[in-house]
Design a protein that fits this description.
CATH superfamily: Sodium/glucose cotransporter
CATH architecture: Up-down Bundle
Helix content: 55-70%
CATH topology: Sodium/glucose cotransporter
Distance between the termini: 60 Å
Shape: globular
Strand order of the largest sheet: 1-3
Oligomer: single chain
Number of domains: 1
Number of helices: 24
Order of helices and strands: HHHHHHHHHHHHHHEHHEEHEHHHHHHH
Number of strands: 4
Largest sheet: 2 strands, antiparallel
Length: 602
């Protein structure tokens, strides 16, 4: 059976499962559409939350970024995991106790202001659309390879699938679909990792294989990888090369951005009791850890396998001579078929610059005496592996390692499950903000439940269309695009939720001014270097460390935006009147353990 046929079978079966669940669990009321009628148990909600959380950025892109940068990109692991702990401890139980459907609804009620609620909607839309673009990027990458279509065609296919099961099912359908998607994605991530760990190190567990030795008397895996990449002129894999300040700020931005993500927060509105919100968070951390502890091994081993493909001597630790693979081998060697397969997508490419029939792989900008001597002796004209998209590494790794076809097919299904599960959650957050907070909350308070459901489904459909069109020209790899969304959440939603729960003194004027100051300052900084949010290619300054203010990257600026938000809110609140007494009592009622088994009713 051909690989294409296997891909179709595995992807088709998973799609049929998702759509079947959506039809079976179709939402018939707003309570089911927004919060699954608050009937989801902690274990199931933990699994659904993990699927909602582990997006294309986690499944596809994170290990790819670790593969090419090494230690410095461990910030993704630290920031996303630490942020989830913040969310579980500081926000989720209190927001569940408040007993509403959406994040903007909490902001509007806590700060007794329709304006605050609308600004919350705007912030949520900016964050969620940016985030869902990253998911659609992952969908396009996966479809383009495994269904052998163009990246743009893959995007539209994925958009159509999300439209069917997210618009039909709402939170009720999405919850059960995400449980199925978690099972698919964790199996798809773990099985090839186990195969490759055994192939390279003899360890069954990838987590221990990362620190083990290469098979057949080889040296320590990480030490060998370090030696190989430095021989090729790249920076050491386990070394620290980025600005420490930017790494710290980036980790913090991911942490507090995680705690402010609306699509994750609304998952905690689906459980029956406040205590279940904490239990859900605990189970979600367990399910997330199953993938996150494997990701460093997947990234490292995919980098090693890529290098061994381009330089066969690397696998046995041979002395550096000519890291290259012949064009003839690429065309005819079955072990190099993965290169031909991925070249078709445009995400992997090469060019024989010196016409010697070989494709050289090295860092031509490196200051490496041995490498420089080889370049001069062999008249090399630069690195000829011209394009290796970070987002292909996890998906291509089973092919590079020559694993069985069914493993490759299940990885394809897993990548799509990761991207689609998060996309659905984001789209639900968007539709809830538009229909519940904007249409019902501000434009037409007397709208019928049927009319609100229709508005929710229309807004979700429009959001899918917008995200797909913007996903055709994303501002970076999936994880990089998602990181921008975390910065925006950190600068806008997280501070106002924290102040809303833990401070009785912050009033509506402070909350409004803080949100605006936080998100506008962050957008301005991102726009200065990325330019993409409005018109592609309009960045005012080149996006390089030399141009960043104090070396702070656009993805790290969310922490500064959050500090601006907190500071402006505090100053404005203290310069204006205190919140009404009933609002201060509301804040106390959210935090006090009294009645912890039931949500506060308002």
């Amino acid at each position: 059976m051909s690989q294409f046929t296997l891909n179709l079978i595995f992807i088709g079966l998973s799609f049929a499962l998702y759509i079947g669940i959506a039809i079976w669990a179709r939402a018939g009321s707003t309570a089911e559409f927004y919060a699954a009628n608050r009937g989801v148990g902690p274990v199931m909600n933990g699994m659904a939350t993990a699927a909602d959380w582990m997006s294309a950025a986690s499944f596809i892109s994170m290990a790819g970024l670790i593969a090419f940068t090494g230690y410095d990109n461990s910030t993704f692991l630290m920031g996303w995991t630490g942020g989830y702990v913040l969310l579980a401890m500081l926000l989720a139980p209190y927001l569940r106790k408040f007993g509403k459907f959406t994040v903007p609804e909490f902001i509007g009620d806590r700060f007794y202001s329709q304006t605050a609620r609308i600004i919350g909607v705007i912030c949520l839309l900016i964050i969620s659309i940016t985030y869902v673009i990253g998911q659609m990027t992952g969908v396009g990458v996966t479809f383009s390879r495994y269904l052998e279509v163009s990246n743009s065609t893959g995007l539209w296919i994925g958009a159509g699938l999300v439209f069917v099961y997210a618009v039909l099912g709402g939170m009720k359908g999405i919850t059960y679909t995400q449980v199925a998607q978690y099972i698919v994605l964790i199996i798809a991530y773990t099985i090839p990792a186990v195969f490759i760990a055994m192939q390279l190190t003899g360890h069954v567990l990838p987590q221990t294989g990362l620190f083990g030795s290469l098979n057949e008397g080889g040296g320590k895996f990480l030490a060998t990888l370090d030696q190989v990449v430095t021989d090729l002129g790249f920076k050491s894999y386990t070394g620290h090369h980025k600005s420490t300040l930017d790494m710290v700020l980036f980790t913090l931005a991911l942490m507090i951005g995680t705690a402010g993500l609306p699509h994750v927060i609304i998952r905690f509105f689906t459980v029956p009791k406040v205590s279940d919100a904490r239990k859900s968070a605990g189970w979600a951390l367990v399910f997330i850890a199953l993938l996150y502890t494997v990701a460093p091994a997947v990234g490292s081993m995919s980098r090693f396998n890529l290098t061994a493909t381009m330089w066969p001597g690397a696998e046995s630790g041979q002395t550096f001579s000519q890291p290259a693979v012949s064009l003839d081998a690429i065309e005819n060697d079955p072990e190099k078929a993965w290169m031909r397969n991925w070249q078709v997508t445009g995400l992997l490419n090469w060019e024989d610059k010196n016409g010697d029939g070989m494709i050289q792989y090295y860092n031509d900008g490196a200051e490496n005496e041995a490498l420089s001597a080889v370049i001069a002796e062999q008249n090399l004209q630069g690195n000829e592996l011209t394009t290796v998209n970070n987002d292909i590494m996890v998906l291509a790794n089973p092919e590079i390692a020559n694993l069985p076809g069914w493993v490759i097919a299940i990885v394809a299904a897993g990548g799509l499950a990761a991207a689609l599960s998060t996309a659905a959650g984001l789209l639900l957050a968007i539709s809830g903000a538009v229909s519940h907070d904007l249409v019902k909350g501000a434009i037409n308070p007397n709208i019928s439940e049927k009319g609100e459901l229709l508005a929710a489904r229309i807004s979700m459909a429009v959001s899918i269309l917008v995200a797909t069109m913007l996903g055709l020209n994303p501002p970076g790899f999936a994880a990089q695009t998602v990181a921008l969304a975390f910065g925006l959440a950190a600068s806008s939603i997280f501070p106002v939720l924290m102040m809303g729960i833990f401070s009785k003194r912050i009033n509506k004027q402070g909350a409004i001014a803080g949100m605006l100051a936080g998100i506008l300052s962050t957008l301005l900084y991102i726009f200065t270097y990325k330019g993409w949010f409005f018109i592609a290619g309009t960045n005012m300054l080149e996006d390089t460390a030399a141009n960043w203010v104090f070396g702070i990257s656009p993805a790290s600026f969310g922490v500064i935006g959050a500090l601006i938000n907190f500071g402006v809110a505090y100053v404005v609140s203290n310069a204006t009147e205190e919140p009404p007494l009933e609002v201060q009592e509301l804040v106390d009622s959210i935090r006090v353990p009294r009645g912890a088994g039931d949500a506060v009713s308002h």
